[in-house]
Design a protein that fits this description.
The complex is a heterodimer of chains A (204) and B (210). By secondary structure, chain A is mainly alpha-helical. Chain A is built from nine helices and two strands, in the order αααααααββαα. The mean pLDDT of chain B is 88. The chains are: A mainly alpha (204), B alpha+beta (210).
Chain lengths: 204, 210
């Protein structure tokens, strides 16, 4: 059992990382990563949604008829996403307006549906929860790397605080990093680096 | 076995939907007052921010305090103010707070612009709803951008106030636009000018009638 858990963790974070390996959830990766704070909130929302929906799908897996399982999964995912959305609207309205439609769009984030289908559907709830959690963490750490580079290079700040040198007059801010194209550049660079490391390890 | 029955998926889907939606509905009901209050408070905060002497960037006032202050000091729009909220001291209007809104780059921008009793000088500007690009257009909500408006005077003619390219020399009718957010800047310029022009016109009509 221990090894199954370890396998789930390593797969989610590294070998089968949702962003640079499976290339899923790219819409939000590109959209919310220009400020670190927005990214953090988005990641927390995804961690919550993904781990709990995978677990819920797994709890219901023996009961759910095969032919309507996608409908049930979507329903469960939407349920958790709406909870997050309402929570943000009620208790953190500024963040809710910063993230705009992207919280709601977690419903269509392929990572969530993908994990529910590929893992939650055929494994016990505790493992499904773990799988969801670590896939979400795998997504989060890649996003945070991208967001850090974009915010520091593009705006000279980190979490809204000025970074020495990058916020000074000697650094010409790379506005393009904060704009949508910057996200594509960063995603490509990150994917390239991580995949090169992976393939080198596999060869040795 | 019940699972093999033809109607089972229908009943099952129905039950799962009923269960999950009732939880969501309950939860939304539970927070709806708060969500509504947040929306109102964002608006009231923006109005307070543009009227002189009613708010301080550094003070840590609670939502309730701000709401009470709004209810106590700010007067609702009437015919004479042409849609603007007013701050009245010793029987005279001290300042106007005019709601402005229009299309931004991604979604509507809504804000408040404060005008002194002379109906020409800007006291401040604040936004309570916008969905511009974070880090670029969304910088309109930052003090660095908003503080530029303080003391600017509406000019006569087509453009009452203008947003100029960053780095250009400014006069008393213009402020610097945002770097990297040309779309937001030009749209905001239109929003501000349209609202101010309409307001001046209505004020004029009001005067004629009286």
């Amino acid at each position: 059992m221990q090894s199954a858990k370890q396998k789930v963790i390593v797969e989610g974070l590294w070998h089968n990382n949702p962003v640079f390996r499976q290339v899923l959830g790219i819409c939000s990766t590109l959209a919310v990563t220009n400020l670190v704070l927005n990214t953090v909130v988005m990641c927390v929302a995804l961690i919550f949604t993904l781990s709990l929906s995978a677990a819920s799908v797994s709890v219901l897996r023996k009961l759910t008829p095969r032919n309507i399982r996608m409908m049930v999964e979507t329903l469960i995912i939407a349920f958790y996403v709406i909870i997050v959305d309402v929570l943000l609207k009620a208790y953190w309205p500024e963040m809710s307006s910063n993230l705009g439609p992207y919280v709601g769009l977690i419903i269509t984030n392929c990572i969530v549906m993908g994990r529910c289908e590929a893992y939650g559907n055929s494994n016990p709830p505790s493992l499904a929860f773990l799988d969801g959690l670590f896939n979400a963490l795998g997504y989060s750490f890649v996003l945070l790397i991208i967001a850090t580079f974009r915010e520091v290079l593009g705006m000279g700040t980190f979490l809204g605080f000025s970074v020495p040198y990058f916020s000074g007059p000697n650094w010409d801010k790379w506005i393009v990093m904060v704009m949508p194209p910057g996200a594509f550049f960063m995603l490509a660079v990150v994917t390239w680096i991580f995949r090169s490391v992976q393939s080198r390890k596999e060869q040795s | 076995m019940i699972k093999e029955k033809k109607w089972f998926p229908v009943i099952y889907m129905f039950l799962v939907t009923a269960l999950l939606s009732s939880i969501v509905i309950g939860f939304t009901q539970f927070t709806s007052n708060r969500v509504e209050a947040n929306r109102k408070l964002a608006f009231e905060k923006a109005v307070l921010a543009v009227l002189p002497g009613l708010s301080d960037e550094k003070e840590k006032a609670t939502g309730l305090q701000l709401h009470l202050r709004f209810a106590e000091k700010v007067n609702e729009p009437d015919d004479y103010s042409a849609g603007a909220y007013t701050l009245i001291g010793s029987g005279k209007i001290i300042a106007y707070a005019l709601p402005i809104s229009g299309r931004g780059f991604w979604a509507p921008i809504k804000g408040i612009i404060g005008i002194e009793a002379d109906r020409k000088t800007i006291t401040a500007i604040a936004f309570y709803q916008q969905n511009e690009t974070p880090g670029l257009g969304a910088e309109i909500t930052k003090p660095e951008f908003r503080d530029q408006f303080k003391g600017k005077v509406m000019r006569m003619g087509e453009k009452l106030l203008s947003l100029e390219r960053p780095g250009t020399k400014l006069d008393k009718n213009s402020v610097h636009a945002l770097t990297g957010a040309t779309q937001t800047s030009t749209r905001l310029e239109t929003i501000i000018n349209d609202a101010l022009k309409k307001w001046q016109q209505q004020l004029g009509d009001g005067l004629d009638r009286n």
